[in-house]
């Protein structure tokens, strides 16, 4: 092998291993963003002060690039029944224009990812997994079609052969979010002339609507991951920069600021929302994570065989080894991921996420504890660098916005 060939192969390997960039990367770079590798993507961690970005979302509004998230389109006359088979929650009964939070598990009932699914039409859905899991979820959804085809005949009310198509659109899709108390006003201002503002103002939580901004056809959703009101805007990659610029222009006068992943993490922690890789992992069941009602509803309403049904039945019928709880402290030291949770010096759990809360002014954390210590108000300690610090089990969420 020549030196030139070896160098070319090494360059190819380096390019393949390098984090991917969203269509807005150059915009972030021009704004002076600090980048981090997240889920295989080079994403803005912060633009200046992460604390200021956090407070902007709580007080006015923040603008996020979430284009690292996945998008998998499931279509066909049996698309809803197929998702009933492949995922834990029930999707065939969703109304067009609505969204649903759910999880996908492996054959043993452990969480592969949590995701949001939108019903686009009677025969079409859009499944949105997390960035690091998007290829895994897309592959799992494609693989599970065969199992659905085998189970199709046993599902009441079906006729003919099953019809379902799974297409991974992650690489072609960009996602921008506006979060905060002023988000509705900003999105309304950004609408093209002639677009009915009620498509935004009357959009309910966990729903979506088609709108037009800067001549771009946008799928506008109202879900959010910050504990504030907010919107997610899905567009083709080619339209991402124009959409971002239109939202920035609409945000003038509303103190809209660009926000990175650091603020997104502190915001979601205050809202008590799980993050895959922390509160949700392949060692976690939905029941462990407080999603037992979702599993129970699926077992009650999906009488036919669906993916991992026997494993989920066993999980519902047994006491989880540990349960997810919130933790708060009046002290100054924050609990961090991996720290031991103690009672009388004995380890009874582990912290999965933790940091000082910018909004509440004291440390907060999420973690798993033995069930007998999961009641809010239970006094515990957390080992922080070899010293036990007092914490209390707290009800979730830590923070709720005024409605």
UniProtKB/TrEMBL annotation:
Its EC number is 2.1.2.10. The keyword Amino-acid biosynthesis does not apply. Residues 322-399 form the Aminomethyltransferase C-terminal domain. It comes from the Bacteria. SUPFAM superfamilies: Aminomethyltransferase beta-barrel domain (SSF101790), Folate-binding domain (SSF103025). The keyword Ubl conjugation does not apply. Belongs to the GcvT family. The glycine cleavage system is composed of four proteins: P, T, L and H. The glycine cleavage system catalyzes the degradation of glycine. PANTHER family: AMINOMETHYLTRANSFERASE, AMINOMETHYLTRANSFERASE, MITOCHONDRIAL. This is Aminomethyltransferase.
């Amino acid at each position: 092998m020549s030196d030139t060939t070896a160098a070319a192969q090494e360059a190819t390997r380096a390019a393949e291993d390098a984090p991917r960039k969203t269509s807005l990367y150059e915009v972030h770079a021009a704004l002076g963003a600090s980048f981090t590798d997240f889920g295989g993507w080079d994403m803005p961690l912060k633009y200046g002060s992460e604390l200021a970005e956090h407070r902007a979302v709580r007080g006015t509004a923040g603008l996020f690039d979430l284009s690292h998230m996945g998008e998998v389109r499931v279509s066909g006359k049996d698309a809803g029944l197929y998702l009933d088979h492949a995922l834990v929650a029930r999707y065939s009964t969703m109304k067009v224009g609505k969204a649903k939070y759910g999880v996908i598990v492996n054959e043993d009932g452990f969480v592969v990812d949590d995701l949001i699914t939108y019903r686009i039409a009677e025969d079409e859905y859009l499944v949105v997994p997390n960035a690091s899991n998007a290829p895994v979820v897309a592959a799992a959804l494609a693989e599970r079609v065969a199992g659905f085809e085998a189970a199709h005949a046993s599902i009441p009310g079906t006729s003919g052969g099953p019809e379902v198509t799974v297409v991974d659109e992650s690489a072609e899709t960009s996602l921008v979010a506006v979060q905060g108390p002023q988000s509705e006003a900003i999105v309304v201002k950004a609408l093209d002339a002639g677009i009915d503002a009620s498509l935004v103002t009357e959009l309910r939580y966990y729903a979506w609507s088609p709108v037009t901004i800067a001549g771009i056809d946008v799928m506008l959703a109202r879900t959010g991951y910050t504990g504030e009101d907010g919107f997610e805007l899905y567009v083709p990659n080619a339209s991402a920069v124009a959409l971002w610029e239109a939202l920035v222009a609409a945000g003038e006068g509303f103190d809209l600021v660009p926000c990175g992943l650091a603020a997104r993490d502190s915001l979601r922690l205050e809202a008590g929302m799980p993050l895959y890789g922390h509160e949700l992992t392949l060692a976690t069941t939905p029941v462990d994570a407080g999603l037992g009602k979702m599993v129970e509803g699926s077992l009650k309403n999906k009488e036919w065989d669906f993916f991992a049904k026997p494993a989920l039945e066993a999980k519902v019928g047994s006491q989880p080894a540990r349960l997810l709880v919130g933790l708060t402290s009046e002290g100054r030291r924050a609990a961090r991921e991996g720290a031991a949770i103690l009672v009388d010096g004995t380890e009874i759990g582990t912290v999965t996420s933790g940091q000082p809360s910018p909004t509440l002014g004291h440390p907060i954390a999420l973690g798993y504890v033995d069930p007998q210590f999961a009641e809010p108000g239970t006094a515990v300690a957390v080992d922080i660098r070899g010293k036990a610090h007092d914490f209390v089990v707290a009800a979730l969420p830590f923070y709720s916005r005024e409605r």
